[in-house]
Write a structure and sequence with these properties.
Elements lengths: L2 H12 L2 H4 L8 H18 L3 H10 L8 H8 L11 H5 L5 H10 L3 H8 L3 H10 L3 H9 L10 H18 L11 H12 L3 H4 L5 E6 L6 H13 L4 E8 L2 H14 L6 E3 L15 E4 L11 H11 L16 H9 L14 E7 L1 H4 L6 H11 L3 E6 L12 E7 L9 E6 L5 E7 L2 E4 L10 H10 L1 H6 L9 E5 L4 E8 L3 E5 L2 H9 L1 H4 L4 H9 L5 E2 L2 H14 L8 H11 E3 L4 E2 L1 E2 L2 E2 L7 E6 L4 H9 L7 E2 L5 E4 L3 H4 L9 H23 L1
Parallel strand pairs: 1-2, 1-4, 2-3, 4-5, 6-8
Antiparallel strand pairs: 5-7, 6-7, 8-11, 9-10, 12-19, 12-20, 12-21, 13-14, 13-15, 13-16, 17-18
Helix pairs in contact: 1-11, 3-11, 3-15, 4-5, 7-9, 8-15, 11-15, 12-14, 12-20, 22-26
Pfam families: HsdM_N, N6_Mtase
EC number: 2.1.1.72
GO molecular function, one term: methyltransferase activity
């Protein structure tokens, strides 16, 4: 089925909006159109076995037994409908449409009815009936042919996604929160699964797949399709969790129709209510919302972090509250199967991020500690930079992170960075912020997906071959290359001491002086030294003490007072006296600097080479050294482009000026 057919069917479903106009706000159209589309799809799927189910119901009528198993067998699916009603029959009886529709929906098996309940379907039925629109809406959907032989399951996903996109536009929501462009999913699944192609082709293979932010289930479907393409006899069990009720309902209904277990798709927040606790999976993939705060689940996440530590999901660290991306990654890593003593088992993980998780957070911050945990455990296999303007809800650059706890020998201790930012074609028509797409080799477009997949597989060889045409697109680093030591470079506090109007005013305002019983007299006594200056602290304090005693006052004692006097009459001076604390030079906080030194490099050697030639009195405070990890992807692929020659720019400006003058001349003629 081509894209024009998807659009045609989606247009048919969305044409119901013409009936709703006036009685519904535009932002509420989807609340009617989406559940009726799901209902119509379920009806079309069950149609071939509808009579057989009705016969089974009649056969067991009046018997006190659980008929669920027999009805599922009769329907040929994991769901069924016990009524002999259809949408066409209901539409033909307008007076009883609401009553019959509720009977019809109530006759679905519990799992199907739960899907419709998430749309608050009964509430919409009552509202449509009150507006005398129900039978008309039902009539519209009876003309929508969604039978599986006309619209295969994979293609039905496109229709749902198009309807969700329109619903999101009308309600000012973000379509990209619910689903990911299919070509992006295809590439992601390729990179996730391709290294296992040989193992997946074996007979009797069983694989489990989890998407903890599954939306409408597009990624799960693509993973299922990809594995089945490698081995049609493979058993693929898909699992997911989704917070948005409409997306959850669509994903769950999709699994029911495909014969998968719909109970595998859990509803709720993956952080606070893990629907797959204690489960492990072969493949874990997700496109979590970018930059979404986790304030709503802060209490639960922080409790798990503090109480369970490394035994929980978030032991490595907590990112800042306004971006839960790295929480998702930790959650996914917790779902990896352990590797056994023979090297079997293990899992592969793929996630879509924006640029923030690469570098956000200083050394030993939550984000940096999470990156450190991942890299020191040698789980990060690669990061792939994608083109910008590839997603529906953002035009920013995005990245695939690919992780595994079963790297092959060649990849151990290494991370591949792959730059695919130039692999795109311009879309004929933009969809939200999506203006670019990855070509798949069809309809005359380049095969970006295939090219990137092959480059990923050959990354180590390409990176090592300087003659390879794509050598500049791949770089390989050791895990520790992303680590650094955040050192604190101190310089001594140097002061001269003087009594001026400015320092005298500061002395009067100092708390330790203001608290003196005769503070004004104290300041007046010091004023007698106005204009005086001393090179050393001891000279200054002797003179000050003499002036105060001469005025009949007692020189106060105590460290707070001494510190206040020094800080107010002391003036920073590069040629001043070095201040000491317990015999050691006191650092000047205003001159304090920080340097990032590569992990493994001798910091004293770095200081001697990079700092001391410029500031010979500097030293490192080793008690403040921190370890950090960041992945400066863009920096590694930066290529300097010299500015254009001034003569060339000047010539271009003159040419444009002449062109403008010529156009103005034509206008004035």
């Amino acid at each position: 089925m081509n894209s024009s057919k998807h659009t045609e069917l989606a247009n048919h479903a969305w044409s119901v909006a013409d009936l709703l106009r006036g009685d519904y706000r535009q932002s509420d159209y989807g609340k009617v159109i989406l559940p009726f589309t799901v209902l119509r799809r379920l009806e079309c799927v069950l149609e071939p076995t509808r009579e057989k189910v009705v016969e089974t119901v009649a056969r067991f009528a009046g018997q006190d037994i659980d008929t669920d198993h027999f009805l599922r067998k009769a329907s040929g699916h994991s769901f069924y409908n016990k009524s002999d009603l259809t949408l066409r029959k209901i539409a033909a009886d307008p007076q009883n449409a609401a009553k019959n529709l509720q009977i019809y929906v109530g006759a679905f098996s519990d799992n199907a009815r739960e899907v419709l309940d998430k749309y608050e379907f009964n509430q919409q039925v009552r509202k449509l009936d009150g507006a005398n629109l129900l039978y008309q809406v039902i009539g519209k959907f009876t003309d929508l042919d969604l039978h599986p032989d006309v619209v295969p399951n994979h293609n039905m996903g496109y229709i749902f996604e198009e309807l969700i996109r329109r619903f999101a536009e009308q309600s000012n929501e973000t379509a990209g929160e619910h689903f990911t462009p299919r070509e992006v999913i295809k590439l992601m699944v390729n990179l996730l699964v391709a290294p296992d192609a040989d193992a997946l082709s074996l007979p009797g293979v069983v694989r489990t797949v989890l998407d903890p932010a599954c939306g409408t289930g597009g990624m799960l479907s693509a993973a299922d399709d990809h594995i089945k393409a490698l081995n049609e006899h493979a058993t693929v069990e898909v699992y997911g969790q989704e917070l948005n009720p409409e997306s959850w309902a669509i994903c769950r209904s999709d699994l029911m129709i495909k014969g998968q277990n719909p109970e595998n798709i859990r509803f709720g927040n993956s952080f606070s209510d893990d629907g797959h606790a204690r489960r492990k999976f072969d493949y874990i993939l997700a496109n979590p919302p970018f930059g979404v705060e986790w304030k709503k689940v802060k209490e639960e996440v922080e409790y798990e972090h503090k109480s369970l530590g490394d035994a929980g999901r978030f032991g490595a660290g907590l990112p800042r509250i306004n971006d839960g991306s790295l929480l998702f990654l930790q959650h996914m890593i917790s779902k990896m199967k352990p590797v056994d003593v023979n090297g079997g088992g293990g899992s592969r993980v793929a996630i879509v991020f924006n640029g923030s998780p690469l570098f956000t957070g200083a050394a030993e911050s939550g984000e940096s500690n999470i990156r450190r945990w991942i890299l020191e455990n040698d789980w990060l296999e690669a990061i792939v930079a994608l083109p910008d303007q590839l997603f529906y809800n953002t035009g920013i650059s995005t990245y695939f992170w690919i992780l595994t706890n079963r790297k092959d020998a060649d990849h151990k201790g290494k991370v591949v960075l792959l730059d695919a930012r130039d692999q795109w074609v311009k879309m004929r028509k933009s969809l939200g912020d999506k203006r670019k797409e990855l070509g798949d080799g069809t309809n005359g477009r380049p095969d970006h997906i295939g090219d990137i997949t092959r480059l990923y597989a050959e990354a180590l060889q390409v990176a090592g071959d300087t003659e390879h045409p794509l050598h500049g697109k791949v770089k390989v680093f050791a895990n520790e290359d992303f680590g650094y030591q955040r050192i604190t470079v101190e310089r001594p506090l140097k002061l001269r001491f003087e009594v001026t109007e400015e320092t005298l005013a500061a002395l009067a305002e100092a708390k330790a002086v203001a608290r003196l019983e005769r503070s004004e007299e104290f300041v007046t006594a010091v004023r007698t030294l106005l204009g005086s200056s001393w090179a050393t602290k001891s000279e200054a304090f002797v003179a000050l003490k003499d002036a105060v005693v001469a005025a009949g006052l007692t020189w106060p004692s105590g460290a707070p007072f001494t510190k206040a006097v020094r800080e107010t009459i002391g003036v920073r001076d590069p040629e001043g006296e070095v201040q000491k604390v317990k015999g050691a030079a006191e650092p000047d906080a205003d001159l304090r600097d920080y340097e990032n030194v590569p992990l493994g490099e001798d910091v004293e050697g770095y200081l001697k080479r990079e700092v001391l030639p410029h500031v010979p009195d500097a030293w490192i405070d080793h008690t403040k050294t921190k370890i950090g990890y960041e992945i400066p992807f863009t920096r590694h692929f930066y290529v300097y482009k010299p500015p254009r020659p001034l003569a060339e720019i000047d010539a271009e400006l003159k040419a444009l000026e002449a062109e403008i003058q010529a156009l103005l001349g034509e206008v004035t003629q």
